[in-house]
Give the backbone structure.
Amino acid sequence: MPDKQIPRVESELVPFFVNFQEKLVTYGPSLGISPTEIAMMANHVANLTFLINVNQQVADTREAFTDFKQTMLYGDVDGATPPTPAFPAINLPEAGEPGIITYAKLLIRKMKSTTKYTNQMAEEFGLWSDHPSPDPESNMPVLTATALPLGELEVRYRKNGRQGIQLEWRFKGESEWKNLGRWTTSPIKFTPPSETGQPQIVEFRARYTEKDSPVGNFSAVITVVTTP
């Protein structure tokens, strides 16, 4: 049967695994999955859901902290003190071990090795598709950026089977994005122009490339402050 892989896009992981766990409770015992394995997967799904949700909260707070720090260091001396951003607490809801997706792959391999695993089950688990290749329209890079000395910035990404990325940047507050080129390796180092020698807030976004053309959606916009 045509296999469909576990989603690579984080926004698709939670609905996939919630459904996967429900079907595991129903079909798992007949496919050789033990109650202990089913319970462990339930803990993994709870932790995965928490981690995906808190990741966005951390990203939002990180941007708020960047604005807060910028105001505190370089703001108007007569201005009001901005509220201090509070990062969310990172407390897993269930006892668990690392390797959530790795563990799920082991269970999937175990299920597929039995003669009772059918096309209908595969479809209900979300593991069957007439088009198993990832949909480029729903696949987007995840970027991270680090400020280096002397105003240099370092951007990292994972290929996830893609050729590379097309990277764009702009100073925060600008409306137009500037093309920084197409890249096939990570990390990418870039020094934005500076006339004042002061810290600058820089934003990045990217799309994957295939056959030297951009495909899929833009990544989430990330923000970093240069260190002169």
